[in-house]
Recover the amino acids of this structure.
């Protein structure tokens, strides 16, 4: 089942260049998935409160093809591929007018909240048919070599405004947080971002942010907690803003 939702982009979702921030774009994508689930009687709150289950984002790859201005009518299209085992794949396509501005593919795990353990997807009735279409041009895979040098870029404390009802940083906050630690953001925009979530970032925890520039100009990034455990791995590609 393909599902579409239309929004008008907001001025308060833009950055210093008056284009939508990556985190705001991810919010529109995930808002559409939530509306999709509610549309078929499977709201995320009901799934949590009634069934004791939650979908947790594992990986997401996003291609940003063009900057998006405020007060634009955008349409987000989403669909889910048939899952296997413990992983569910949800895809997104965002249209700015009649042009595709963003595509994303995401991998989610279904978690039993009482046991803190993954659940096989066969246990869950999505309430809609799956689609076969995949986004071949959007990758959720990358690898940071063990010998790749990462430098300390700074620290980030998880504030109350970052968390959701899971009491850890909501995943839509990560793209903008990473951009906060990248140089030259006023002259560039994000063209691709892949996020791999390994551990939660709970309320009031302080993360160390590490970064390293690749030979192709892109960046590898990590966040680590006080136990020196990796919470997030990411790759980010920037391109110059057109003048």
């Amino acid at each position: 089942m393909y599902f579409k939702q239309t929004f008008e982009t907001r001025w308060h979702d833009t950055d210093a260049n008056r284009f939508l921030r990556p985190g705001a774009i991810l919010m529109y994508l995930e808002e559409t998935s939530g509306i999709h689930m509610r549309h078929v009687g499977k709201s995320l709150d009901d799934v949590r409160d009634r069934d004791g289950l939650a979908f947790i984002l594992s990986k997401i790859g996003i291609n940003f093809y063009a900057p998006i201005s405020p007060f634009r009518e955008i349409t987000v299209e989403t669909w889910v591929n048939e899952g296997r085992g413990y992983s569910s794949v949800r895809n997104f396509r965002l249209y700015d007018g009649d042009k595709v501005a963003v595509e994303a593919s995401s991998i989610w795990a279904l978690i039993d909240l009482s046991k803190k353990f993954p659940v096989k997807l066969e246990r869950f009735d999505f309430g809609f048919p799956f689609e076969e279409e995949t986004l071949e041009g959007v990758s959720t895979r990358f690898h940071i070599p063990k010998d790749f040098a990462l430098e300390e870029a700074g620290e980030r404390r998880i504030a109350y405004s970052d968390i959701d009802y899971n009491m850890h940083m909501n995943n839509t906050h990560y793209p903008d947080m990473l951009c906060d630690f990248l140089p030259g953001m006023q002259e560039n925009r994000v063209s691709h971002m892949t996020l791999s979530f390994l551990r939660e970032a709970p309320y009031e925890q302080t993360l160390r942010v590490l970064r390293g520039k690749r030979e192709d100009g892109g960046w590898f990034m990590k966040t680590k907690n006080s136990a020196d455990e990796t919470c997030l791995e990411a790759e980010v590609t920037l391109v110059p803003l057109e003048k």
About this structure: DSSP finds three helices and eleven strands in the chain. The mean pLDDT is 95.
